[in-house]
Amino acid sequence: MDVFLTQILNGLDKGSAYALIALGLTLIFGTLGVVNFAHGALFMIGAFCSVFLQRLLNMSYETIDPTKTDFLGNPAVVKTPYVESWFGPETGAAIIDWSVPLAVLFAIPVMIAIGFIMERGLIKHFYKREHADQILVTFGLAIVLQEVIKALYGANPIQTPAPDSLSGVAVLAEGIVYPVWRIVYFFFSVVVIGAVFAFLQFTTFGMVVRAGMADRETVGLLGIDIDKRFTLMFGIAAGVAGLAGVMYGPINAPNYHMGMDFLVLSFVVVVVGGMGSLPGAVAAGFLLGILESFASMTVVTEIIPGINQIIIYLVAIIILLVRPRGLMGRKGVME
After folding, report:
1. Judging by beta carbons within 10 Å of its beta carbon (0-12, 13-18, 19+), is residue 298 exposed, middle or buried?
2. Which one of 20, 22, 83, 298 counts the least CB within 10 Å of its CB?
3. Max Cα–Cα distance, the chain, nearest Å
4. How far apart are CA 326 and CA 320, in angstroms?
5. Which of 4, 1, 43, 37 is nearest to 21 (CA)?
């Protein structure tokens, strides 16, 4: 039972990232009809927002401490972060320690702006083009963004540790311990997903967007500029992907190719959930995360070697053979 519950937790952890990325992908496809292969790159950029803020907060100046000496006997050079000199040693150290959660606030406007620029500068020119053209241009954009990050930050992973108070393990039950930050990531994803659904369900803006997703022409005939609202939804989708990347940094150190690692999996999640279905994308994300977790167990891989690498694709094949639209796909989408 302990092993079973642990694997469920591992699955929810993985499923949280899948669900957040797939949710953003589905928002873009459902509103704009664009197959965005650059969405994984937005996840990566979000992770590097935390790297940038961490380095910014750690900027320091050097002073000479005559009370200390180095190994040569000379007065020691002490580096003091600027935030510690501005806010005091304790408050400054706390700000640095909580750089990843603080990066969430930093990443929201940054990712929305990047999404807006991407949509206005490139994506809008491919609305009426074939999906193959959209895939090619967005995949090319993803490669460009990946190489830009590689040039700026190098090819090696960069550690972005969680706050000290959230970096330990929690005892959930007798014999079950689990990293605190992974639990935080799961609840964070639930909050973000809930906020997106509440925004679409209970606000006038969201209702108009949902109406536009169902019948864009009719909404336009009512005198509503649905294109502007869809552009903002692209920014929100980019923000969701970025937030997923920010909080994922302590779990998997940010690197320039992490977006590509999640890209294919996230599209499989979207297809399994049903193209254009937001609940389907979230449900499929958690479902496939749990299945992948159980397939990674030693007892399973000993019986079927490599099953953990292909389980998601096998499930996708089975579901699409039975339900070509996916679990909750809408009629007429991608058919």
Report:
1. exposed
2. 298
3. 80
4. 6
5. 43
Nearest Cα neighbor of 51 from 182, 159, 166, 181 is 159
Sign (positive/negative) of CA torsion 297, 298, 302, 303? negative
Number of domains in the chain: 1
Distance CA(153)–CA(258), nearest Å, equals 13
Q: What does the alpha-carbon distance between residue 328 and residue 323 come to, in Å, rounded to a whole number?
A: 9
The answer to the question of residue 71 being in a domain is no
| 294 in a structural domain | yes
* Structural domain of 11: 2-51+99-322
> How far apart are the C-alpha atoms of 195 and 40, rounded to whole Å?
21
> Is 57 inside a domain boundary?
no
The b/e string for 241-260 (b: 16+ C-beta within 10 A; e otherwise) is bbbbbbbbbbbebbbbebbb
| Confidence (pLDDT) at 150 | 92
What's the rounded Cα separation, in Å, for the pair 286 and 279?
Answer: 11
Rounded to a whole number, what is the distance in angstroms from the first to the last CA of the chain? 43
CATH code at 179?
Answer: 1.10.3470
Report residue 243 as tokens: 């937030």
In a domain, 88, yes or no: no
pLDDT digits (tens, 9 = 90+) for 224-255: 877 788 888 888 889 999 999 999 989 989 99
Contacts of 306 (CB under 8 A, 6+ apart): none
